């Protein structure tokens, strides 16, 4: 994505110092881009436009799989070396080594395409030049990933390559036979199991189309409309500030395509209002970051990892959307619970101080809808086309056409050729970081498949957990979370889908549930240091401490991230994914949704320390226990067996009793 601030942020919305800090944080995720003028600027735009047009053509016509993947990585390398400097001090200058790397990337791409089937056929007995080209490709991929995403991914990929070369020197169970250059390099660079594996295939065939679609929506003003509409629809009420953040984050998920961009867009507009109604800077920053995280899991676009789920499971993308629907609603329900309790707590403080909170005046939502309501079509178009039977590729292509045509309903949103070229080029540039991440992750996955590390790791995890599903799930969540500390969401999912998910599947968890479990915990990397860029960006806007803001973001997201354990530890929990095991019906699904929602409400109250009134410590503990019993009864069953019958309903009863006690005490206080 562009490292400039999102277009929804009006000039002057941030002071120069804060804007610089926010932009620096975005650059940590998306790389520090060169901003060329003159002929270099035209070249950069031309290459990006060529990349976009090639992939639009590939979406319409048939392009051989190998050619599509080779060209996609080739374009990513060309744009990466052109637009991302080797170091910040060389920014906005195109240095001689950039020319050399760009030329090398073009030559390697030509060599792979020209090699054709002959190259693929001889990967077992490669020629010397194949190995030279392979090593050059590995180095180029590591370097473009470093420029676009930072040091972590290339270093991790390099460590995996060392494991492939020298794994024969390790003790069991990590030992393998060891592989030389003749075996490893062709596997990573010629076959479709390494750099050009599933991740790059999804990036080339789907993700780039969605980034282009998101850029079209941004340039046509859809993002700004969704922010304005959310403020309008929820304005004028005491609870409008928090509710606005929740609603805006859901609507912005598609157009922004980035958690940190959503956080920045919302923060610049929402923070002044949140401050006026009583939010502390760290609380506001935590809620803004939690909203940005929600954008990654919001249909119809979700995050890039969602496309990989469809590919790994060999299911339609519409199936992934179906599975994500209820968990997404429950995530936002959890945020709304937290927001409502925020407002009760803040309102109680204002009442005790004898002050009134300012009411925000906003324009009527109907007036906005009459002007820009056509932007709502972007939330439905892709799904409608898929329901009509079109592939995800054609669905997003047709949705782009609809968005471009509808943009001409308003003069200020019309995508005339100059603006459309800008959108296409911007979408291609946004995909460079993702393509580089997927190619670099392909090195890791290639080593895992070649050495059998995934199977070894599954056996180790299961043995360490004693074959217990609940403990294995806890281990898996911890592993995914730790991996997510170092790498972005997409890379975290790619690695853990190969390494961690098989352990759950071996213990009888349906493959789709295991992958959705891994996906939701990979998303945690958006609010987990040291890659907690959303909370850090929110902290830069609100002026709070970044780590305190991160802790508040964890508080807001914690209830919802207990939920994925239901998918894998409760046989009926797949109902939350709108999947049915034998004998299940819609009544069972409704019961699962009710228990999950009630459990999230109880956990939200425990996290906030407030329900009808401020809680004592024992009440917070009681609500936490009630929430866990409703959401995660398998934890109790794993600890106590059948000694605690019907933990679901014990949790419901406990929550009801605690709420009744709160209600009784507040009623007494009101009548006193």
TrEMBL record:
Pfam family, one: DctM
InterPro entries linked to this entry: DctM, TRAP_DctM-Dct_fused
Keywords from the UniProt entry: Cell inner membrane, Cell membrane, Membrane, Transmembrane, Transmembrane helix, Transport
Localization annotation: Cell inner membrane
Membrane-spanning segments: 39-58, 70-87, 99-116, 128-145, 152-170, 190-216, 284-309, 321-339, 379-408, 428-453, 474-505, 517-541, 553-569, 589-611, 623-640, 646-663
Keyword Kinase: no
Signal peptide span: none
Annotated ranges, domain TRAP C4-dicarboxylate transport system permease DctM subunit: 137-563
PANTHER family: BLL3936 PROTEIN
Record function comment: Part of the tripartite ATP-independent periplasmic (TRAP) transport system.
Name this protein carries in UniProt: TRAP transporter fused permease subunit
Lineage, opening ranks: Bacteria, Pseudomonadati, Pseudomonadota, Alphaproteobacteria, Acetobacterales
């Amino acid at each position: 994505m562009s490292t400039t601030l999102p277009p929804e942020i009006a000039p002057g919305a941030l002071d120069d110092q804060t804007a610089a800090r926010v932009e620096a944080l975005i650059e940590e995720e998306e790389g520090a881009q060169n901003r060329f003028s003159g002929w270099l600027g035209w070249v950069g735009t031309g290459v990006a436009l060529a990349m976009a047009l090639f992939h639009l053509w590939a979406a319409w016509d048939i392009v051989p799989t190998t050619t599509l993947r080779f060209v996609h990585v080739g374009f990513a390398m060309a744009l990466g070396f052109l637009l991302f400097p080797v170091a910040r001090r060389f920014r906005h200058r195109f240095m001689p080594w950039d020319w050399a790397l760009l030329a090398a990337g073009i030559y390697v791409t030509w060599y792979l395409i020209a090699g054709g089937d002959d190259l693929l056929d001889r990967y077992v007995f490669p020629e010397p030049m194949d190995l030279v080209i392979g090593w050059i490709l590995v180095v180029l991929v590591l370097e473009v990933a470093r420029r676009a995403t930072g040091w972590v991914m290339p270093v991790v990929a390099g460590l995996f390559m060392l494991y492939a070369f020298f794994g024969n020197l390790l003790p069991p169970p990590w030992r393998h036979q060891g592989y030389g250059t003749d075996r490893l390099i062709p596997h990573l660079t010629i076959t479709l199991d390494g750099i050009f594996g599933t991740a790059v295939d999804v990036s080339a065939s789907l993700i780039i189309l969605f980034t282009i679609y998101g850029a079209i929506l941004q340039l046509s003003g859809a993002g700004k409309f969704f922010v304005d509409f959310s403020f309008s629809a929820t304005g004028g009420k005491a609870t409008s500030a928090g509710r606005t953040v929740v609603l805006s984050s859901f609507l912005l998920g598609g157009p922004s395509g980035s958690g940190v961009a959503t956080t920045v867009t919302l923060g610049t507009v929402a923070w002044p209002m949140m401050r006026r109604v009583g939010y502390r800077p760290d609380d506001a920053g935590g809620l803004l970051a939690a909203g940005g995280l929600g954008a990654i899991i919001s249909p119809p676009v979700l995050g890039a990892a969602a496309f990989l789920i469809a590919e790994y499971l060999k299911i339609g993308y519409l199936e992934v959307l179906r599975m994500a629907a209820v968990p997404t609603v429950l995530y936002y329900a959890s945020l709304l619970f937290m927001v409502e309790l925020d407002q009760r707590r803040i309102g109680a403080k204002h009442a005790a101080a004898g002050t009134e909170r300012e009411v925000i005046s906003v324009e009527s939502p109907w007036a906005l809808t009459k002007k820009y309501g056509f932007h709502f079509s972007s939330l439905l178009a892709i799904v409608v086309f898929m329901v009509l039977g079109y592939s995800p590729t054609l669905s997003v292509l047709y949705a782009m056409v609809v968005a471009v045509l509808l943009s001409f309903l308003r003069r200020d949103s019309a995508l005339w050729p100059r603006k459309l070229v800008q959108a296409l080029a911007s979408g291609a540039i946004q995909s460079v970081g993702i393509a580089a991440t997927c190619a670099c992750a392909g090195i890791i996955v290639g080593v895992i498949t070649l050495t059998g590390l995934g199977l070894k790791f599954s056996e180790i995890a299961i043995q360490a957990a004693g074959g217990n599903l609940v403990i294995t799930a806890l281990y898996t969540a911890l592993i995914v979370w730790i991996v997510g500390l170092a790498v972005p969401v997409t890379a975290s999912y790619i690695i853990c889908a190969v390494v961690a998910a098989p352990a759950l599947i071996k213990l009888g968890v349906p493959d789709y549930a295991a992958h959705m479990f891994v996906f939701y915990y990979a998303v945690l990397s958006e609010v987990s240091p040291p890659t907690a860029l959303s909370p850090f960006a929110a902290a830069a806007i609100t002026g709070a401490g970044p780590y305190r803001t991160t802790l508040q973001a964890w508080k807001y997201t914690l209830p919802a991230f207990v939920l994925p354990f239901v998918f894998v530890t409760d046989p009926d929990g797949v109902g939350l994914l709108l999947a049915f095991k034998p004998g299940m019906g819609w009544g069972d699904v409704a019961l699962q949704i009710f228990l999950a929602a009630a459990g999230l409400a109880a956990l939200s109250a425990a996290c906030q320390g407030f329900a009808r009134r401020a809680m004592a410590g024992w009440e917070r503990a009681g609500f936490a226990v009630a929430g866990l019993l409703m959401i995660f009864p398998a934890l109790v069953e794993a600890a106590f067996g059948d000694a605690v019958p019907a933990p679901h309903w014990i949790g419901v009863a406990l929550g009801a009793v605690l709420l009744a006690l709160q209600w009784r005490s507040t009623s007494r206080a009101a009548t006193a």
